[in-house]
Known about the structure:
Elements: E1 3-13, H1 19-24, E2 26-35, H2 39-44, H3 54-66, H4 72-85, E3 92-99, E4 111-118
Antiparallel strand pairs: 1-2, 2-3, 3-4
Amino acid sequence: MDAIHLMxxxxxxxxxxxxxxxxxxxxxxxxxxxxxxxxxxxQSDRLADTHDYRTVITRTQQIIxxxxxxxxxxxxxxxxxxxxxxxxxxxxxxxxxxxxTPPIPDFSGQVAVEISRDKAD
Length: 121
């Protein structure tokens, strides 16, 4: 299956289990892979024959900014569901969502979840 990779989609949001995360917010980064047949687009060179991924980028940023959840797993699920609904040609989507600066004492790393959803899900 062919794929389009959208990497480094960043937005400031308010998802988190701690009250401070819901009030102060934090940066998130999404990397999304859209699976679909790109045969026609690879031959025609026409935007109409592929997925216009600008909509997924814009909608992902909106979801992060405007829909606070307790868990990043839920936020990733909302992003995946919205991406799958954006084009009937999409067969599968994988979302890797990273909390860039999680508020964990003595931890300077990042936390990420990765989920994959099929059109049949």
